[in-house]
Amino acid sequence: MSDPQAEARADVSGGIPGEQPAQARAGAPPAGDAPAGALPAGDAPSPASLRASSVATAVSLLLVLAIVLGSRVLRNFDAALLPYAVATVFLAFGVAYRYMLWLSAPASRCLLRQARRGVFFRVRALFSRASLSRARHPLRTAARQRARAETRATARAGGTAQAPAFTAQAPAFTAQAPAFTAQAPAITAQAPAFTAQAPAITAQEPVFRERPRARRIAHQLLLWGSALAVLITFPLTWGWISFTATSAAGPGYELRVWGYRLAGFDALSIPGWALFHALDLAAVLVIAGAGYFLWRRMRDRGALTGQRFAYDLVPLLALIVVAVTGLLLTFSSLVLRGGGYEFLALLHMASVVFALIYLPFGKFFHVVQRPAATGMRRAAHPAAPAAQDGAAVLVCRRCEEPIGAASAIEDLRTTMRELDLGFDEWAEYCPRCKRQLRGAAYLTQVKKGYV
Amino acid sequence: MMGRTIFIDPGRCIGCRACVSACRECDSHRGTSLIHLDLSDEGHSAASLPTVCMHCEDPVAPCAEVCPADAILVTPDGVVQQADPTRCIGCSNCVNACPFGVPVVDTRARLQMKCDLCYDRTAHGLAPMCATVCPTGALFYGTLEELRAERPGVRVADSFAFGDVVLRTGVATVVPADKVDWPVPGGLPVVEVNGVDVP
């Protein structure tokens, strides 16, 4: 280990430094950083690989079909955007292939089971009698809960003698009820707003809840900048949305989705300008977010530890190149009167195609993988709501401290047996007891009375 | 066993917790100590045992094998890294599968953390923080030859037994000369008498 980083650099294969997750190293399908399709020469593809190829091919064909149908049999398809559309088909293949391989590993299958169970607990909790009762009588339930909380607080304070005083106040509380009832429509009106926020909260909450604010903001900028760009460009390149001029003189335009007219607008109005420059806004968001992370990766000593160029830096650089070349296109048309536009368009296209094809194999794949954390919250940890909802919690066989949800530990033991890790029984001991038992074994069997 | 690695000698550990303090200095988990110091027979013996990640080699890193998110990567030189924060989903699989009780999970941040042999230092030829400050040499960093130059005749073992399973590790343990030929017991109780585990 004289210079491991040099070794890591020397061991670059497939564009990714030689670090590999152990699932791939231990003979499981290559589901990690290494390009998933890279099978050793002469080896027959595994069943998991074949299944992944089949699913990925089906997904790609479905996308091609959707492009053909959505663009009204290619009538609205813009041939100039063909390379982008082809790149998205490759992207669909790569993501589906890698996702299927990822799920074929024993540990990932276990995760899927846990996530399904997590969803089950949520749905069950949502339709439980208490939940339905709360939904039917929100104000009555809230008042009842408040009364219970007050009673508990009174009891804690040793104030049972105060009970008559509270009873005396009861008519006053009852008198407030109409006021609460009057607020109900306002509360109900807020519901869509909360519902609309849910995806945003879900997307971000498990990822950065405990991270520094600057990183949270930068990640939001990067996420929403990328999402905005994807939502605009993908349907455009597929011919799903198109803009048509209402008259030869302009400036009226029509926005058509799948060939159907959705809205008409004036290209010179503020909404029209914003619509045509939404990608510039997305580029600014992406440059701000990715620029911060790039700056952090140059300075933060924690981030510098074990940082890999291909995995950690290339995605950021790719996003910045895509965004900058995109902005330069606008700059060319607005300031240079189209000077250098063709070269810039080619550069932009090359950078976008590279980023899309790289997505399934590098850090970008966390966009697909990471949402599993939302299912995990309920499933695995002893403090998880699933455990509190009544699911059994396994305690350490030695010290009886909680280890985790019994179902999650059982899943883990199954996974360990599938991986030939024959000490799965050890999973029923807490980490501290494992260490203490090992120390005791050293003390009694290896170096008796070693102090 | 890796070429340059940590050698643990529990017989030398005095439980001073200098390693625990020094571990907080590691740049990859600044402010959080990830080395464990346990008392093996508290109240009866002064024996203490420092635990760093043993960087399992065969089977390779059980923590990484059971990771559903491919978050734990192994470097070409055999160092098992702590979970990649962009991938880790905080499922605790690694915590419960590790036979040595090494990884911890920050449940609020939903992230796994573990000793990575101070990769920010060892990658540049420096000793890990714990071995740098250990006053008794219970944690030694170097090659086996360097250890033997300091402690002539010392014997080490790099395999542990958990029931029928033998695990070979990148980090080695000092053992008496007559215990070299068999794996160090990992502590997994193999017999249960009247509901009580017997090691």
Automatic annotation (TrEMBL), chain B:
It holds the Pfam family Fer4_11. InterPro entries: 4Fe4S_Fe-S-bd, 4Fe4S_Fe_S_CS, ET_IronSulfur_Cluster-Binding. The keyword Iron applies. Residues 4-34, 79-108 form the 4Fe-4S ferredoxin-type domain. Keywords: 4Fe-4S, Electron transport, Iron, Iron-sulfur, Metal-binding, Repeat, Transport. It comes from the Bacteria. This is 4Fe-4S dicluster domain-containing protein. It comes from Streptomyces pathocidini.
